[in-house]
Amino acid sequence: MYWQGIMVPMLRVLIDDNPYSGTYTYKDTRLIETLVVSAMFVTQEIKFSNSYNINVIDSSITPDPYTLNDKLFMNMVVLKAACIIDHGNFRQRALLEGLQARCGPASLSTAGSLNGFKYIIELGPCKIYEKLKEENAFSGEALNSLIHFVLSPFIGNDFDPVDALQRYYDSERMIR
Questions:
Q1: Are the CB atoms for 12 and 4 separated by under 8 Å?
Q2: How far is CA 34 from each of CA 15, 59, 77, 82, rounded to the nearest angstrom?
Q3: Other residues' Cβ atoms within 10 Å of the Cβ of residue 32
Q4: 3-state DSSP call for residue 13?
Q5: pLDDT, tens digit, for every residue of 16-49?
Q6: Could you tell me which residues come within 8 angstroms of residue 154 by beta carbon, excluding any fewer than 6 positions away?
Q7: Does 9 sit behind a cis peptide bond, omega within 30 degrees of 0 on the bond before it?
């Protein structure tokens, strides 16, 4: 599948998984699993023009979003996957927060590293994903259905405009 060759490097960039030491932190298979799981979440939150079959057991997404040129789907899935990985890193750092070790005069403390990960969660891929999801909701086909909803008239069976005005004026007299 072509999507794996495109989305895995995109995800590596977002989570800063660069091979400084010659090896990646995450294996390709783990990142593909994360992308498929995030695709499950994304398809529940956003309606796309294409319908996808996501199989977590086989780690597959069909049809291939790359061959369909569905950039919105690929970008949203990659952002959601980066968010999931950042939450996992935050969870691991939270477990180690405040850990201290001493051996004679030497000491090691991990306190204070959690705040940086907190900012990554608040301002990083998770925030970008939510912002793009919101922008997508107010554009294109979704916007047309929203406007239709707002402009559709609704009159209840027991609505009486004269009675409503009378109640308004009565309430104004009570306030004064």
A1: no
A2: 12, 9, 9, 9
A3: 20
A4: helix
A5: 888 776 788 889 999 999 999 999 999 999 888 8
A6: none
A7: no
- Give whichever of 20-29, 97-106, 136-145, 163-172 has the largest mean pLDDT: 20-29
Looking at residue 175, its pLDDT comes to: 57
The residues pairing with 101 across neighbouring beta strands, listed in sequence order, are 108
* Distance separating alpha carbons of residues 117 and 85, to the nearest angstrom: 11
Q: What is the 3-state secondary structure (H, E, C) of 130-169?
A: HHHHHHHHCCHHHHHHHHHHHHCCCCCCCCCHHHHHHHHH
From the list 83, 70, 68, the residue with the least C-alpha distance to 37 is 83
163 half-sphere exposure, CB direction, 13 A CA radius = 3
Q: Are 54 and 36 in contact (CB under 8 A)?
A: yes
Which two three-digit tokens encode residue 79?
């952002």
Structure token digits, residue 54? 């996501």
Tokens of 18: 């660069």
User: Comparing 7 with 116, which gets the higher pLDDT?
Assistant: 7
